[in-house]
Amino acid sequence: MQIYLPIAEMPVDALVILLLGTGVGFLSGLFGVGGGFLMTPFLIFLGIPPAVAVGTQANQLVAASVSGVLAHWRRGNVDVKLGIVMLIGGALGSVVGVQLFALLKRLGQVDVAISLSYVFFLGTVGSLMLIESGRALLQRRATRPGQRKLHQHTLLHRLPFKTRFPRSRLYISALLPALIGFVGGLLVAIMGIGGGFLLVPAMIYLLGMPATLVAGTSLFQIIATTAIATFLHAVTNHTVDVVLGALLIAGGVIGAQFGTRLSMLLRGEQIRALLAALVVLVAVKLGLDLVLTPNTPYVVQTVAPGS
User: Fold this and answer.
1) CA within 20 to 30 Å of 82's CA: 129, 176, 196, 217, which one?
2) PANTHER family attached here (predicted)?
3) How many distinct helices (H) and strands (E) make up the chain?
4) What's the predicted TM-score (pTM) here?
């Protein structure tokens, strides 16, 4: 069924968009990430303008994250105090990111900036995660549970404003989760992603959070961060397509529930390995699209007289 997207100014197949939302929502619940690192590139692959894909995807992330976090909340897998600290940093990052996005749009470089950002961040983080998760899977049999440590203390753990987070059994500087949230807010605003592919490993290896709490807490802070970014994009850049967002939300809410259930059946190393593989594949696809000659290298545009 073909429908017209008023902001993207193009027709799309509604069933394809619904299925895309369901699939990415499933991955969101499975990996504990917003799913934007897949949704935004897939929307671009379908021909949606990158600026609209980013603005609308931030809107879809709100619904997918709410659905996923409710499932984790029922299991007690959310550290609310730590999530609020991350949320404060995320809100500030969203404001800064939307202003930067607006500047790139005025310069006419926003589409290239979005693609390059994806290739760089996804390629780098995905490769590192793939190497780490592979080592963890290989060493799992040789290491007894009592020998493993969640994290190692570094100079970052000597920062001021030490705060106790009882749910995660942590005593760390509040600046650490706030900084992680700030980076996540920037990624939401500029790339249309929740930043879970970066937040999840940072929460595990920098903060030392228990793996069982990471997914739920990550989704908890993503909700407010993406809501702020969506509002600012709609007001400042006018890139939020409500029709497209509604279809993505409908599919995403359903898919997230099934993904959350499956996540309980997999080990942390397995989930990280699958997430890393997906991140790398998307980065490779976007990189190829930047360097390969498109099927239609030239576009003829009719300009009205006097415009």
Assistant:
1) 129
2) MEMBRANE TRANSPORTER PROTEIN MJ0441-RELATED, MEMBRANE TRANSPORTER PROTEIN YTNM-RELATED
3) 10, 4
4) 0.65
